[in-house]
Amino acid sequence: MSQFNFSGRTAQGQSVDGTLEASSVDAVAASLIGRGITPVKIEEVTATATTLRKLRHLTGADKVTDTDRIMFCRQMQTICKAGIPLTRGIRGLAASIHHESFRDTLNNIADRLETGVGLSSAMRHHPDTFNNLFVSMIDVGENSGNLDEIFKQIGFYLERDAETKKRIKSALRYPSFVSTALVLAIAAINIWVIPAFAQLFAKFNADLPILTRILIASSNFFVNFWPYLLVASVGGFFGLRHYLNTEQGALKWGEYKLHMPLVGELIDRASMARYARSFGLMLRAGVPLSQSLNLCAASIDNPWLAAKIRRIREGIERGDSLLRTHLQAAMFTPLVLQMISVGEESGQVESLLTEVAEFYEREVDYDLKTLTDRIEPILIVVMAAFVTILALGIFLPMWSLYEVQSS
Fold first, then answer.
1. Topology of domain 267-364, per CATH?
2. What confidence score (pLDDT) does residue 349 get?
3. In the 8-state DSSP scheme, what is residue 193?
4. Positions of the chain with pLDDT under 50
């Protein structure tokens, strides 16, 4: 089977582009005509193009982003609200999308819809693009006949989640840049600067201060054993990565992230906001309580918190209340627990969970605004200490040599 790029027009005159896998050009043409598309141009994908596509897939360059999903939800809301048939609407969206991988996904979903498969079932074949929470929400929308409202809710949830991620990355960008620059500076000084001064000091057979001897020894170790350090670093990186991919390692890392200095509380609150918003979203859509908790555990990106959420689900299945199970999980503050209790008593849990999510999001916003202010003094102290050690280690012997020569 070969891949073919095609362009054509629908019965309404709309331009359609995409990629199909078939045995020949005639097979592609027959498939397009069966879809109601008049083929205009069909050409086989070259080996080079196929290799480049595989390379983009391996590097993650063709990954569907949150922005793509948000735009898809907004467009699907409009399509469902206008009463446009799903197959036609999805094919129209695919024709207007420049993201090659996402376009192929939508065309595949449309193909499955034409065979009589439901939208949620068609999406379930693309877990990298649509996660379990997304698919379950679509399933609820199909069964209730409220697909437009479901797409609106999912789009809003994805937008708030993407905004939180973006703010966290923005707040950590400056500290990451400074830390990277500091590491590169230390490496450059060990490779080029200190060895040059070491040769100068060796010519005078001077009695060097302890700090200078430490700097020269560390530089010699770095220069002489850098291949072993490189191998150890690469091995340590992949070893740590393998450990974090194990169940025990993922749990340990998930717990550690919540206790990291400066950013631990921020990550905790952002995770709680995501949990509360997704849980409230599922309940508002009519998803059963136990299934909602299971999907929330799958959607949260912290295995340690996911394990706690699954224990909450087990407690609910035993007949415990939401308040009792959340209290035992030790995930929320007393104020939030009171809000959950009120919501459970009044039968408005989904509304109160939305309030909980907004409460945590406001705290995350405040933490993000003050995060840089808290990190900057630490970076300044670290850089000052580095400059002081370097200055004392290098320039003190030079001053001593100058005094010897002057005398």
1. Receptor-associated Protein (1.20.81)
2. 86
3. I
4. none
